[in-house]
Specification:
2 domains; 271 residues; Rossmann fold; alpha/beta; seven-stranded parallel beta sheet; single chain
């Protein structure tokens, strides 16, 4: 029976693995036995995450690359395959929003910055597409592999003020399903593609939107908590179980799905 959560011998790449959520997922995969490549643009934070994993007994290497730059992604793929011979797991965690693509409370849709909108769509959609295309090549060769994209609650329901981010994460959902179908039909059942849709987690990009300087909730933060049945924000470590399940042989018949990890937010009507 295929029910093993053990990832010993597997090789994983995590884009944005130097971030809050990506970092937690990278540590979880390493603890489950995977060898982990931390991919990010900032050498300092990538190195810090690698050293953190190593200090806990795991194996990790730095992959300095930009998810929108094919040349650096190819170099990262070459580095990890030269080191460990393959890539079994890709987590597309890099992404997020940028200030210019967020509408302030006193602005309207007409005030949306066109260039900022393009940048946030590129970051989330193209920044998922390009790594998938590059790292899937070795998966296709070996006829096995797992891709996990990071979606958002903003893709499942309309959320005010972040139209560009929401649209780009909706594209990630559709891409997840499309790629799952493409790989299964053309390359067999050994390659699986899924996504995780986190609820509301506090990170550097959204902290000021959700929390005041004294740690109390902003009005937006209060609205989110009111519509989250568990009445709290998520902790980054709470993504690990789903990541390990989707990465392991425990989910060999699961592909094309978007799994909410959201404290009940997506299920709640508000009534």
């Amino acid at each position: 029976m295929k029910n093993s959560f053990d990832l010993t011998g597997k090789v994983a790449v995590i884009t944005g693995g130097n971030g809050v959520l990506g970092g937690a997922m990278s540590e979880g995969l390493a603890a489950a036995g995977a060898r982990v490549g931390i991919l990010g643009r900032t050498q300092k934070t990538v190195k810090e995450q690698v050293e953190k994993i190593k200090s806990n007994g795991g194996e990790a290497i730095s992959l300095i690359a930009d998810v929108l730059d094919k040349v650096t992604l190819l170099k990262a793929r070459d580095k990890i395959t030269e080191r460990w011979g393959k890539v079994d797991i890709l987590i597309n965690s890099a992404g997020g929003n940028i200030p210019g693509a967020t509408i302030s409370p006193d602005q309207s849709f007409l005030d949306m910055d066109d260039d900022a909108l393009t940048k946030v769509v590129d970051l989330n959609f193209k920044g998922t597409f390009l790594p998938s295309k590059i790292f899937a090549e070795s998966m296709i060769t070996q006829k096995s592999g797992v891709i996990i994209n990071i979606s958002s609650m903003a893709a499942q329901q309309a959320i005010t003020r972040v139209m560009g981010y929401s649209a780009s994460k909706s594209a990630v959902d559709n891409f997840t399903r499309s790629l799952a179908i493409e790989t299964a039909l053309k390359y067999g059942d050994g390659i699986r593609v899924n996504a995780i849709a986190p609820g509301f987690f506090i990170g550097s990009q959204n902290r000021d939107l959700l929390l005041n300087s004294d740690g109390t909730l902003t009005s937006r933060g209060k609205t989110i908590i009111e519509n989250t049945p568990m009445k709290r924000f998520g902790e980054a470590e709470e993504l690990i179980g789903t990541v390990i399940w989707l990465s392991s042989d425990a989910s060999t018949f699961v592909t094309g799905t978007v799994i909410p990890v959201d404290g009940g937010f997506s299920a709640y009507s508000g009534v």
